[in-house]
Request: fold
Amino acid sequence: MLLTYSSTPYHLVKASAWPLFTGFFAGTMLLFTAINFHYDYSGAVSNIFICLFFLVWTMFSWWFDVALEGFKGGHHTAKVRSGLRMAMALFILSEVLFFAGFFWAFFHSALNPVYNIGGVWPPVGIDTISPWGVPLLNTLILLASGATVTKAHYAIQKNDSFNVIFNLDLTLILALLFTKIQVFEYNESTFTIADSIFGSLFYVMTGFHGAHVLIGTIFLFVALLRYESGHFSSFYHFGFEAAIWYWHFVDVIWILLFICLYWWGGTPTIITLYI
Reply:
């Protein structure tokens, strides 16, 4: 199948129900998650997974339509791709600001710990996780995945199909390994999300990062499927580039989490309070 081209440099997208469905299932999943945290409702967990299934379905359907617009319809001209790059950059910027709020809360609590938590950071009674064990291993895994996905990008520019597929497969394996180790860390942790401000920030920050890792994994998997289906070439592969940008963003956030949350924030420091 050959890529067709639009007769105009711009493209006005057709009406789509996928944004509505995505927002509905994401919001409903968040609602059942909150219910599961606060109430003893046995059906909350099953409903969360049902909403997650439909959310993933809408994501794949939405991305499939966008892929058809660019590949079969030929609507992703140079002007459109420029707009898509700007949109992806702004989206990643919004994600940066999303995590900036959590880092703000973390440093606000860590630099001036109140007497309620003992006037120290980490709070009294919190047995923190050593940064030189599982967190360091996960850091090395994510850095390695960043290297392999960059090699895949270099390979697609050189029309090296073998190295594109090989390095993308390797990146996906490393991403799944990171997630598995993160779940292991949660299971072995001695504190929960309910254990003071430290526990809340730890699980919220690492949990949201883990969610972004899963999204990035799906993003890269879709890019791999599209490449194997012949949707990308050495000069036309923005969908793959967008996935790479997102994955590098995930890498950078984890490095900041490792430095601030595990290493600096996990070292007990006594703060003198002046009342």
Notes: The radius of gyration is 22 Å. Residues 156 and 234 are 6 Å apart (CA to CA). The chain has two domains: 13-73, 76-270. The domain at 13-73 is CATH 1.10.287.70 (Helix Hairpins).
